[in-house]
């Protein structure tokens, strides 16, 4: 049986969105799922999409809305694996939390079309190339925005998706009911880590929290996240450090301490290993842009 990875996305506490442009040689991420919703705009690329229980070709201009915990992956055509630098895989990816505007979407009539859209997305939704020129333009524009402007554009994207008649569900109606995942325990573990990753958390403590022995927990955690417990915590701390380094009034030694590193040298070593730069170089590069 093919392993399905439960990807844990590190969406910032300061925003419910993770929006980025992508530019790859080819898609590489294996079959996976995550609790967040995902929008994928394929500006350049051809290949095959595996979403739920559906396998279909995709092409440039396609737009996908993938619901919470729906297994998926994209496989680029063989020609993208031949080292031709002229062929690129480009587009926009948006991840957003399933709790995003939950109360408004589920209680106010203004959002009924968006509520129905998100419900449909549990089977995956496909917008064919040319189905909405406005939607395509919004998806090209949103990575260039930030703050409230990005949130406003995102709501406009959901509105346009919900009002576009030319959309199709991807998986068959029986798929959602037949697919079960052990998400409750891992969600509880990740929630605990989100609140405590800047302090020392021993393997014994987190295994006890999950009601497992340490050996079983290590296997379980890696099977669900694709990372060891140690590396997952390290990635969270480095991600937090990257944000703090954009604040000029916080010293690097203080950032090291705030992020849970025991010594400055340990922080510098791991930061460079993960980013390719020592913290001071990273700050200089980011603030000069």
Explain what you see.
The chain is an alpha+beta fold. The chain folds into two domains: about 170 residues, Sandwich (Jelly Rolls), CATH 2.60.120; about 100 residues, Homeodomain-like (Arc Repressor Mutant, subunit A). The chain is built from twelve helices and eleven strands. The strands form three sheets. It has a six-stranded antiparallel beta sheet with strand order 2-9-4-7-10-11, with helices on one face. It has a three-stranded antiparallel beta sheet with strand order 6-5-8, with no helix packed on it. A two-stranded parallel sheet has the order 1-3. β5 and β6 form a beta hairpin. α7 crosses α8. The chain is globular. About 0% of the residues have low confidence. InterPro entries: AraC-bd, Homeodomain-like_sf, HTH_AraC, RmlC-like_jellyroll, RmlC_Cupin_sf, Tscrpt_reg_AraC-type_HTH. This is AraC family transcriptional regulator. GO terms for molecular function: DNA-binding transcription factor activity; sequence-specific DNA binding. It holds the Pfam family AraC_binding.
Q: Give a quick account of the main beta sheet: strands, pairing sense, barrel closure.
A: 6 strands, antiparallel
- Give the number of helices: 12
Number of extended strands: 11
Structural class: alpha+beta
User: Which CATH class of the largest domain?
Assistant: Mainly Beta
Range of helix content = 40-55%
Percentage of residues in strands: 15-25%
Task: Give the overall pLDDT as a whole number.
Answer: 86
Low-confidence stretches: 177-181
Rg over alpha carbons: 20 Å
Would you identify the CATH architecture of the largest domain?
Sandwich
SSE order: EEEEEEEEEHHEHHEHHHHHHHH
Order the strands across the largest sheet as they lie in space: 2-9-4-7-10-11
Number of domains: 2
Keywords: DNA-binding, Transcription, Transcription regulation
Protein name: AraC family transcriptional regulator
Pfam families: AraC_binding, HTH_18
GO molecular function, one term: sequence-specific DNA binding
């Amino acid at each position: 049986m093919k392993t399905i990875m439960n990807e844990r996305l590190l969406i910032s506490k300061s925003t419910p969105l993770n929006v980025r442009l992508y530019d790859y040689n080819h898609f590489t991420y294996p079959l996976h799922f995550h609790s967040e919703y995902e929008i994928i705009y394929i500006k350049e690329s051809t290949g095959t999409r595996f979403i739920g229980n559906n396998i279909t070709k995709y092409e440039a201009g396609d737009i996908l809305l993938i619901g919470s915990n729906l297994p998926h992956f994209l496989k680029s055509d063989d020609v993208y694996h031949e080292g031709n630098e002229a062929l690129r895989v480009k587009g926009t990816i948006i991840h957003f939390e399933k709790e995003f505007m939950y109360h408004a979407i589920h209680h106010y009539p203004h959002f009924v079309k968006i509520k129905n859209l998100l419900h449909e997305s549990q089977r995956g939704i496909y917008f064919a190339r040319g189905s909405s020129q406005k939607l395509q333009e919004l998806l090209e524009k949103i990575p260039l925005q930030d703050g409230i402007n990005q949130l406003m554009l995102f709501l406009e994207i959901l509105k346009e998706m919900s009002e576009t008649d030319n959309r199709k569900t991807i998986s068959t109606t029986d798929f959602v009911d037949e697919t079960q995942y052990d998400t409750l325990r891992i969600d509880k573990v990740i929630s605990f880590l989100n609140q405590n990753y800047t302090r020392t958390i021993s393997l014994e403590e987190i295994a006890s929290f999950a009601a497992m022995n340490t050996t079983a927990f290590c296997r379980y955690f890696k099977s669900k996240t694709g990372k060891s417990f140690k590396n997952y915590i390290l990635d969270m701390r480095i991600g937090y450090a990257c944000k703090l380094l954009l604040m000029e009034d916080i010293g690097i030694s203080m950032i090291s301490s705030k992020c849970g590193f025991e010594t400055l040298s340990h922080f510098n070593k791991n930061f460079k290993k993960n980013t390719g730069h020592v913290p001071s170089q990273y700050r200089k590069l980011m603030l000069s842009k």
